[in-house]
Amino acid sequence: MNRTLRAVLALLTSVAALLGLTTAFAGTAGAAHPPAGQTTRYTMTAFTNSSESNMYVYDSPDATGFTLRKGPAYTPPSGLIRDPSIFKHTDGFYYLTYTTNWTGNTIGFARSTDRVNWTFLYNHTIPISGLTRTWAPEWFIDTDGSVNVIVSLTAASTATHFTAHKITATNSALTAWSAPTQLAGIGPNNIDTFVVKVGSTYHAFTKNETTKYIEYATASSFTGPYTKQKTGDWAGFGDWVEGPALVQLDNGGWRIYYDGYRAGKYWYSDSYDNFATWSTPTEVPGLSGFIRHATVLKETVSGGVTLPTNTTRSLQSVNFPSRYAVVRSDNLGYIDPVTSSSSTAVKQSATFTVVPGLADANCYSFRDSAGRYLRHWDYRIRFDSSNGTAVFNKDATYCARPGATAGSVSLESYNYPGRYLRHYGYALRVDLYQNTDTYRADSSFTVVSPWA
């Protein structure tokens, strides 16, 4: 974040606090990373440029760097598996719904115990006379526990005039469904509608099939009427984009994934102000140009990386094991050589107290012997005394992820998900995740006994 924008955000945060308001920059109230012994897992299901009949499954601890778990993971007995949407039901099974064909009146369903091995269940016929296309089904689980599928329907002879409808499961086995109900206010000619509920408001993201932009609408009821809030290139996502899918991050922000199908790119962007503004779109590392129309399921599972708190430790570089994270006299962070014959001052510069994260106690902050905290500023690592602001606390908080080698750790920025503490030219920074072995090694550290 540049310094001017950072100052503006800090000022607005302070003003809001004085007025007793919840600031947009604070994320969603109560959002936090899982406690020790648990971790967040994001599972992505997608079809690919190489096949519309095969689904691939990936997962990630951070919603940024995804690892292939199985591909192909599921091929239906006939037809396509475009637009696969995943959720986990109360019965413990994972369920898919998906587009079965370019034309027709059915959507498909499959089930899995482990997210990677899937069993075909059935194709469900949407009971509307004259349907020519039933595309892009998406799960939506409402706060009342109802299980719904949002599906884009048209009876036109060409792929136009789509409107969004919902069907609701009428039994817990998900084998019986209500008649379709249109989501009023979305359409005509809107497709790929994805809905999330925040508080009492339903937020819909949908592709305008005429303009090729992702639009945004809100309603107080799931079935509407929805009011279009934003149209055109309101969020900077560009045109000829489709398949929006949202997931909430552990720090309270929201991430949208979408398919830049004309350019052959796959993007994500983050929002922290109730969907009003979005970060500069970033390609999904390693998957952009390969996956198509994905959805992402967030779960809390056992595992994760735990660091000892209220103890002193040193951070040893994985790919330069003779070098350790240090603070130099210019207050900036580097990785420097440290040995048993180094001076007391050098050893002290490589020793930090690991404490619960200032912004989230389930993450971590690192304090040097002078009481200063390891924090980022313009993406550069420096050591500063706390000024007690929310901005500082977030800058100085890092969430532990598995590192590149056994026993190592990577430290993700709390307020810039997808950016990790890494060295570049021996200087410490927070840089965007890259799907390369070099980046993974540069951003991995072994937490070892303190030098001082």
From TrEMBL:
GO terms for molecular function: alpha-L-arabinofuranosidase activity. Gene3D superfamilies: 2.80.10.50, Glycosyl hydrolase domain, family 43. SUPFAM superfamilies: AbfB domain, Arabinanase/levansucrase/invertase. The keyword Signal applies. One of its GO terms (biological process) is L-arabinose metabolic process. Residues 314-447 form the Alpha-L-arabinofuranosidase B arabinose-binding domain. Residues 1-26 form the signal peptide. Belongs to the glycosyl hydrolase 43 family. This is Arabinofuranosidase.
